[in-house]
Amino acid sequence: MPRELIAPAQEQVAFREYESPPLQANEIRVKSQFGAAKHGSEMASYKGYAGPRGGYDSEYKVFQGNTSGMVRYPSGLGNICVGEVTEIGADITELEVGDRVFRHSSFREENVWGAAGVRKLPDGVPWQAATCLDPTDFALGAVRDGHVRIGDAVAVFGMGGIGLMALQLAKLAGAYPVIGVDPLELRRNVALECGADMVIDPTTDDAGLEIKKPPTSVVLMFVLNIAVIIRHYKRLSAA
């Protein structure tokens, strides 16, 4: 039987066997090859604090103050899986056995997915690119909602997956300078590799003050990683 990675209870991790169901006409069977976790989401599920805003009401498009969004165990762990199609349902015409596909999924050795929710990985595109789609979606939302335009000065606080994607998207949108702020040297170095014009360590420097010093001396349009908004609020206000 195939196995999946789960949190059977709060702060516990285990593999669990499961039965792979027969295919429906609109489904495909996929053998998992690669996958990626999403640090914030996985830790929230593992530690049990996901969903404090309550469940999402799709009709009103707000989070309701109830317990429907909280973690329920056992809970699957993992964010995106990339794999090879091994079987297709009778109604499937856009995919073939052998295609590489991906979608949001917990870590499972074998998946049965509705074809409508699957994306095909184009030839020549590495699997790592597929696992970056989720943070890129959120980063694109931040850049779009922030109305970042050519010539805007942007600081991204938090150089995790979403922050690094936001930094690159801001550069593509024509922003200058684009500044990465993170306490970890490794992340700051990666930010420079991704095109940051400047990086700041907020544990040793006042980020707001450093941004205002020459040669930047700018008034910022901020793009924020939501995970660090509260921590850096005072520094943002200063800039």
From TrEMBL:
Q: Name one Pfam family in it.
A: ADH_N
Indicate whether Metal-binding appears among the record's keywords.
Answer: yes
Q: Which cofactor does it need?
A: Zn(2+)
Alcohol dehydrogenase-like C-terminal domain residues are 161-212
Q: Which family does it belong to?
A: Belongs to the zinc-containing alcohol dehydrogenase family.
Instruction: List, alphabetically, the SUPFAM superfamilies matched.
Output: GroES-like, NAD(P)-binding Rossmann-fold domains
* Name by which UniProt lists this protein: D-guloside 3-dehydrogenase
Q: Which InterPro entries match?
A: ADH-like_C, ADH-like_N, GroES-like_sf, NAD(P)-bd_dom_sf
**What organism does the UniProt record list as the source?**
Geodia barretti
Where is the Alcohol dehydrogenase-like N-terminal domain positioned along the sequence?
58-102
Q: Has keyword Lyase?
A: no
Kindly state which keywords UniProt assigns to this record, in alphabetical order.
Metal-binding, Oxidoreductase, Zinc
**Source domain of life:** Eukaryota
Molecular function per GO: metal ion binding; oxidoreductase activity
